[in-house]
Specification:
Layout lengths: L1 E6 L2 H10 L7 E6 L2 H4 L3 E2 L7 H11 L3 E4 L2 H5 L2 H7 L4 E2 L7 H4 L1 H11 L14 E5 L8 E4 L2 H11 L6 E5 L4 E10 L3 E3 L4 E2 L2 E3 L3 E4 L4 E4 L6 H21 L5 E11 L2 E8 L7 H7 E3 L1 H9 L8 E3 L3 E8 L9 E4 L3 H6 L3 E4 L2 E4 L2 E5 L2 E9 L2 H14 L13 H11 L1
Helix pairs in contact: 1-10, 7-9
Bound molecules: glycine.
Glycine binds next to loops.
Length: 410
């Protein structure tokens, strides 16, 4: 089977790594991919926003399945372009990807489906949350606790085109819950928690994510089923009722409040870096499940979850969330792997045969162990071995959760 993965980040490297371990033999292609994916697959110089180029490539390769990583090509209609040409694709249509592409559209669907979410406010007044309505690469949400933060948030949101959405501020713990969807059925994957702020102690600017862990203590199989029943399945039903069934990965960003779970946002693709902890724990034939979802029939999908835990630490360029850190030589990846870590490439490039930084989040270092503490120790042992000029990472990924885990064991 030939699979074409669209995208070039850590999420796409984790997908390539996991799909290669699905069971049946698979030939992995990526567009444009990255040097990590190139280690076990074929990378093609086609950008993820070049819809016609991707269609040509999928045709030329005779790809059996296209798996789309990032949101922008989905919102732009890549899945429609491919499906119209008879190519199987794991990813929603442009109409269904509006669940991520427009926050006000997502809110409308949530209200119609009767799914609990943050209340919309007519006027911005601290404390509140201000969001850019459209895609903003993780930078369009402003949590405003004070009048100063509100003024700053309103200035920040003004730099994005489109409407502004204002919501009540919800308090609780956040969890990311993915489900594979075939238009009617939703199969949940193991929940994860990511770390959005740039610096330790959840301080600094929002980023795409500085690390993640899975599973999330207190959210076991029963709680996951309850959440999917409360959120994903009613949304699938509502999207089908509107004539835009959702096929692909529905990622619910949830806040678990004292009054119950509330949807903060939807993404319509695998999360990054959550994928780098969810997939190493997934057992069974992922490729078969993605192909079955693309064909509209997940009924026979055969997936399980290992009893282990995973922690990913993002190693970023010194200026991240800016993207300017390029060209610094990266060393220590073989040593990190020898120490037992999985290393997923994100912002790397090959220059004259040397692996160098190419901006933003550079590498994702994942540890897998019997519990979060063991996984965390393995991830950080890997991080310590990696070096490049200006390298930066958070030191507190999964710290609180693994400490609680140890305390609960008594
Ligand atoms: N980790 C957040 C996201 O993938 O959007």
């Amino acid at each position: 089977m030939k699979v074409l993965i669209v995208g070039s980040g850590g999420r796409e490297h984790a997908l390539a790594w996991r799909l290669a371990r699905s069971g049946p033999p698979v030939e992995i292609h990526a567009a444009p991919g990255n040097p990590g994916i190139a280690g076990s697959g074929h990378c093609h110089p086609v950008r993820s926003d070049d819809l016609e180029g991707l269609l040509d490539l999928a045709r030329q390769l005779r790809a059996d399945l296209v798996v789309v990583g990032p949101e922008a090509p989905l919102v732009a209609g890549l899945a429609d372009t491919l499906r119209q040409a008879g190519i199987a694709v794991f990813g929603p249509s442009g109409a269904a990807a509006r669940l991520e592409g427009s926050k006000s559209f997502a809110k409308d669907v949530l209200l119609s489906a009767g799914v609990p979410t943050a209340r919309a406010l007519l006027q911005p007044k601290a404390p509140c949350v201000i969001k850019a309505d459209g895609l903003a690469a993780g930078k369009g949400v402003f949590v405003c606790l004070s009048e100063e933060e509100l003024a700053e948030g309103l200035r920040g949101v003004a730099s994005f085109p489109g409407e502004v959405v204002v919501e009540e501020l919800l308090v609780g713990s956040e969890v990311s819950l993915f489900a594979l969807c075939d238009g009617a059925r939703a199969i949940p994957l193991t929940p994860a928690q990511d770390f959005k702020r740039a610096f330790d102690g959840d301080s600094g600017p929002n980023t795409g994510g500085m690390g993640a862990y899975s599973p999330v203590p207190g959210i076991g199989h029963r709680e996951v089923e309850e959440l999917v029943e409360l959120v994903h399945r009613p949304v699938l039903k509502e999207m089908a009722r509107r004539g835009t069934p959702f096929v692909g990965l529905l990622y619910a960003g949830l806040m678990l409040t004292a009054d119950g779970p509330r949807v903060l946002e939807f993404n319509t693709r695998f999360g990054d870096p959550e994928t780098q902890v969810v997939l190493p724990l997934l057992e069974g034939d992922l490729l078969g499940a993605l192909a079955a979802a693309a064909a509209g029939d997940l009924a026979g999908a055969d997936l399980g979850v290992s009893a282990q835990a995973a922690v990913t630490v993002v190693v970023a360029g010194g200026d991240y969330p800016a993207q300017g850190d390029t060209g610094s030589e990266i060393t220590g990846i073989p040593e990190a792997e020898a120490a037992g870590a999985l290393v997923f490439h994100a912002g790397t490039a090959l220059r004259d045969g040397r692996l160098v930084t190419s901006g933003g989040r550079i590498l994702n270092v994942t540890g897998v162990g019997r519990d979060l503490a063991a996984a965390r120790a393995q991830a950080y042992a890997g991080v310590e071995r990696i070096a490049f000029a200006g390298s930066r990472h958070r030191t507190d990924i999964a710290l609180t959760a693994s400490t609680k885990e140890i305390a609960n064991r008594g």
